[in-house]
Write a structure and sequence with these properties.
Number of helices: 4
Mean pLDDT: 79
Helix content: 55-70%
Oligomer: single chain
Order of helices and strands: HHHH
Low-confidence stretches: none
Shape: elongated
Strand content: under 5%
């Protein structure tokens, strides 16, 4: 049998946007910060070395863009 998802008239992105709460955003930010704290040790480098990595700088910039109140339609 060929099953296909039922269209609700809303895109997946719209459906997801409707379910994101302040609590979920706070949880995601906390997870990011926890991972960031643990990463230097897991990589076997100092926190100073870790902060200098380009991908860490880019991730921080992206995180701020995504979680900034200007980007969130409030």
């Amino acid at each position: 049998m060929n099953e296909q998802p039922i269209e609700s008239g809303k895109s997946t992105e719209q459906q997801q946007m409707e379910t994101i709460t302040d609590e979920k955003l706070a949880e995601w930010r906390n997870q990011y910060e926890d991972i960031k704290k643990q990463s230097p040790e897991r990589l076997g480098i100092s926190s100073e070395q870790y902060e200098k990595l380009d991908y860490v700088k880019r991730a921080d910039e992206e995180m701020e863009l995504v979680f900034s109140k200007k980007k969130l339609n409030r």
